[in-house]
Amino acid sequence: xxxxxxxxxxxxxxxxxxxxxxxxxxxxxxxxxxxxxxxxxxxxxxxxxxxxxxxxxxxxxxxxxxxxxxxxxxxxxxxxxxxxxxxxxxxxxxxxxxxxxxxxxxxxxxxxxxxxxxxxxxxxxxxxxxxxxxxxxxxxxxxxxxxxxxxxxxxxxxxxxxxxxxxxxxxxxxxxxxxxxxxxxxxxxxxxxxxxxxx
Length: 199
What we know:
The protein has helices spanning about 15-25, 40, 50-60, 105-120, 130-140, 180-185, 190; strands at about 5-15, 45-50, 60-65, 70-75, 80-90, 90-100, 125, 145, 160-165, 170-175, 195. It is of the alpha+beta class. It starts with 6 loop residues before the first strand and ends with a strand. Pfam families: DUF1419. This is DUF1419 domain-containing protein. InterPro entries: DUF1419.
Protein backbone atom coordinates (compact mmCIF):
# COMPACT_ATOMS: atom_id res chain seq x y z
CA UNK A 1 0.00 0.00 0.00
CA UNK A 2 1.47 3.36 -1.04
CA UNK A 3 0.41 6.34 1.04
CA UNK A 4 1.08 10.03 0.48
CA UNK A 5 3.43 11.74 2.90
CA UNK A 6 0.91 13.89 4.82
CA UNK A 7 -2.78 12.97 4.84
CA UNK A 8 -5.93 13.79 6.74
CA UNK A 9 -7.51 10.49 7.74
CA UNK A 10 -10.76 11.48 9.44
CA UNK A 11 -13.30 14.29 8.95
CA UNK A 12 -14.85 15.78 12.05
CA UNK A 13 -13.55 15.92 15.60
CA UNK A 14 -12.68 12.47 16.93
CA UNK A 15 -14.03 11.68 20.40
CA UNK A 16 -11.91 9.65 22.82
CA UNK A 17 -13.12 6.25 21.60
CA UNK A 18 -12.56 7.20 17.96
CA UNK A 19 -9.19 8.76 18.77
CA UNK A 20 -7.90 5.48 20.23
CA UNK A 21 -9.23 3.57 17.20
CA UNK A 22 -7.44 5.98 14.88
CA UNK A 23 -4.16 5.61 16.77
CA UNK A 24 -3.84 2.11 15.27
CA UNK A 25 -6.22 1.97 12.34
CA UNK A 26 -3.89 -0.50 10.67
CA UNK A 27 -4.11 -3.04 13.51
CA UNK A 28 -5.36 -5.85 11.26
CA UNK A 29 -2.56 -5.51 8.71
CA UNK A 30 -0.94 -8.73 7.54
CA UNK A 31 2.48 -9.57 8.97
CA UNK A 32 2.11 -7.00 11.71
CA UNK A 33 5.47 -6.11 13.28
CA UNK A 34 7.47 -8.03 10.65
CA UNK A 35 7.84 -5.16 8.19
CA UNK A 36 8.80 -1.51 8.60
CA UNK A 37 5.32 -0.31 9.58
CA UNK A 38 6.29 3.33 9.99
CA UNK A 39 5.34 4.14 6.39
CA UNK A 40 1.72 3.23 7.21
CA UNK A 41 1.51 5.78 10.02
CA UNK A 42 3.94 8.63 9.31
CA UNK A 43 2.02 11.64 8.03
CA UNK A 44 -1.46 10.64 9.27
CA UNK A 45 -3.38 13.33 11.12
CA UNK A 46 -6.86 14.08 12.44
CA UNK A 47 -8.65 16.57 14.66
CA UNK A 48 -9.47 16.00 18.33
CA UNK A 49 -11.05 18.15 21.05
CA UNK A 50 -9.24 19.88 23.90
CA UNK A 51 -10.23 17.31 26.58
CA UNK A 52 -8.57 14.56 24.51
CA UNK A 53 -5.46 16.72 24.08
CA UNK A 54 -5.29 17.38 27.83
CA UNK A 55 -5.89 13.70 28.59
CA UNK A 56 -2.97 12.62 26.41
CA UNK A 57 -0.68 15.23 27.98
CA UNK A 58 -1.63 13.93 31.44
CA UNK A 59 -1.17 10.20 30.80
CA UNK A 60 2.03 10.20 28.75
CA UNK A 61 5.08 12.27 29.66
CA UNK A 62 6.05 14.45 26.73
CA UNK A 63 9.31 13.79 24.95
CA UNK A 64 9.42 17.52 24.27
CA UNK A 65 7.13 20.57 24.22
CA UNK A 66 7.57 23.41 21.72
CA UNK A 67 5.05 26.23 21.71
CA UNK A 68 1.85 24.86 20.21
CA UNK A 69 2.98 21.22 20.03
CA UNK A 70 4.27 18.34 22.11
CA UNK A 71 5.56 14.87 21.23
CA UNK A 72 4.90 11.79 23.33
CA UNK A 73 7.78 9.75 24.69
CA UNK A 74 6.14 6.46 23.77
CA UNK A 75 7.07 5.63 20.16
CA UNK A 76 4.65 3.73 17.97
CA UNK A 77 7.31 2.09 15.82
CA UNK A 78 10.90 3.02 15.07
CA UNK A 79 11.17 6.81 15.12
CA UNK A 80 7.40 7.40 14.63
CA UNK A 81 5.58 9.02 17.56
CA UNK A 82 2.48 11.05 18.30
CA UNK A 83 2.68 14.82 18.10
CA UNK A 84 -0.23 16.86 19.43
CA UNK A 85 -0.97 20.39 18.24
CA UNK A 86 -3.01 23.33 19.53
CA UNK A 87 -3.25 25.61 16.49
CA UNK A 88 -5.01 28.91 15.96
CA UNK A 89 -6.81 28.60 12.64
CA UNK A 90 -9.16 31.29 11.35
CA UNK A 91 -9.36 32.86 14.81
CA UNK A 92 -10.12 29.68 16.81
CA UNK A 93 -7.81 27.27 18.62
CA UNK A 94 -8.20 23.70 17.35
CA UNK A 95 -6.48 20.50 18.41
CA UNK A 96 -4.87 17.79 16.29
CA UNK A 97 -2.99 14.52 16.54
CA UNK A 98 -0.39 13.46 13.98
CA UNK A 99 2.22 10.77 13.54
CA UNK A 100 5.60 12.29 12.78
CA UNK A 101 8.90 10.63 11.96
CA UNK A 102 11.34 12.19 14.40
CA UNK A 103 14.27 10.82 12.39
CA UNK A 104 13.50 13.92 10.33
CA UNK A 105 13.69 16.84 12.80
CA UNK A 106 11.63 19.07 10.46
CA UNK A 107 8.74 16.58 10.38
CA UNK A 108 6.66 18.17 13.22
CA UNK A 109 6.96 21.64 11.65
CA UNK A 110 6.08 20.36 8.19
CA UNK A 111 3.05 18.59 9.66
CA UNK A 112 1.94 21.75 11.47
CA UNK A 113 2.22 23.81 8.30
CA UNK A 114 0.30 21.20 6.27
CA UNK A 115 -2.53 21.05 8.82
CA UNK A 116 -2.85 24.84 8.95
CA UNK A 117 -2.79 25.10 5.14
CA UNK A 118 -5.44 22.36 4.79
CA UNK A 119 -7.76 23.71 7.48
CA UNK A 120 -7.59 27.37 6.45
CA UNK A 121 -9.31 26.71 3.13
CA UNK A 122 -12.52 28.75 2.91
CA UNK A 123 -14.55 26.06 1.10
CA UNK A 124 -15.22 22.78 2.86
CA UNK A 125 -14.27 20.04 0.41
CA UNK A 126 -12.67 16.59 0.28
CA UNK A 127 -10.26 15.04 -2.17
CA UNK A 128 -10.85 11.53 -3.51
CA UNK A 129 -8.03 10.21 -1.29
CA UNK A 130 -9.48 11.93 1.81
CA UNK A 131 -12.82 10.22 1.11
CA UNK A 132 -11.07 6.84 0.90
CA UNK A 133 -9.11 7.47 4.12
CA UNK A 134 -12.23 8.61 5.99
CA UNK A 135 -14.09 5.47 4.91
CA UNK A 136 -11.24 3.29 6.17
CA UNK A 137 -11.02 5.21 9.47
CA UNK A 138 -14.76 5.18 10.13
CA UNK A 139 -15.42 1.53 9.20
CA UNK A 140 -15.53 -0.95 12.09
CA UNK A 141 -12.85 -3.64 12.04
CA UNK A 142 -15.31 -6.44 11.25
CA UNK A 143 -16.31 -4.67 8.01
CA UNK A 144 -12.79 -3.96 6.75
CA UNK A 145 -9.67 -6.03 6.22
CA UNK A 146 -6.93 -6.92 3.77
CA UNK A 147 -7.11 -8.79 0.49
CA UNK A 148 -6.16 -12.45 0.75
CA UNK A 149 -6.06 -15.52 -1.47
CA UNK A 150 -9.38 -14.71 -3.17
CA UNK A 151 -7.75 -11.71 -4.86
CA UNK A 152 -5.21 -11.43 -7.66
CA UNK A 153 -1.63 -11.68 -6.35
CA UNK A 154 -0.93 -8.00 -7.05
CA UNK A 155 -3.83 -6.98 -4.78
CA UNK A 156 -3.05 -9.24 -1.82
CA UNK A 157 -2.42 -7.18 1.29
CA UNK A 158 -4.40 -4.21 -0.07
CA UNK A 159 -7.15 -2.74 2.10
CA UNK A 160 -10.70 -3.99 1.61
CA UNK A 161 -14.18 -3.03 2.84
CA UNK A 162 -17.57 -4.68 2.63
CA UNK A 163 -19.89 -3.02 0.14
CA UNK A 164 -23.60 -3.66 -0.13
CA UNK A 165 -25.66 -4.17 -3.27
CA UNK A 166 -29.40 -4.43 -3.57
CA UNK A 167 -29.56 -7.97 -2.20
CA UNK A 168 -25.92 -8.88 -1.67
CA UNK A 169 -22.73 -7.82 0.01
CA UNK A 170 -19.18 -8.41 -1.13
CA UNK A 171 -15.62 -7.46 -0.31
CA UNK A 172 -14.12 -4.72 -2.49
CA UNK A 173 -10.68 -3.18 -2.71
CA UNK A 174 -10.79 0.17 -0.91
CA UNK A 175 -8.75 1.96 -3.56
CA UNK A 176 -11.02 0.64 -6.35
CA UNK A 177 -14.39 1.76 -4.95
CA UNK A 178 -16.67 3.42 -7.50
CA UNK A 179 -18.03 6.91 -6.90
CA UNK A 180 -21.41 5.36 -6.02
CA UNK A 181 -19.81 3.01 -3.49
CA UNK A 182 -17.82 5.86 -1.95
CA UNK A 183 -21.00 7.92 -1.61
CA UNK A 184 -22.78 4.95 -0.01
CA UNK A 185 -19.96 4.46 2.53
CA UNK A 186 -19.59 8.12 3.53
CA UNK A 187 -21.79 9.62 6.24
CA UNK A 188 -24.65 11.72 4.84
CA UNK A 189 -23.10 15.04 5.91
CA UNK A 190 -19.94 14.32 3.86
CA UNK A 191 -21.48 12.86 0.69
CA UNK A 192 -22.20 16.15 -1.05
CA UNK A 193 -19.01 18.05 -0.24
CA UNK A 194 -17.24 19.32 -3.37
CA UNK A 195 -14.54 17.05 -4.74
CA UNK A 196 -11.11 18.64 -5.07
CA UNK A 197 -8.03 17.21 -6.72
CA UNK A 198 -5.70 17.87 -3.80
CA UNK A 199 -6.94 18.75 -0.34
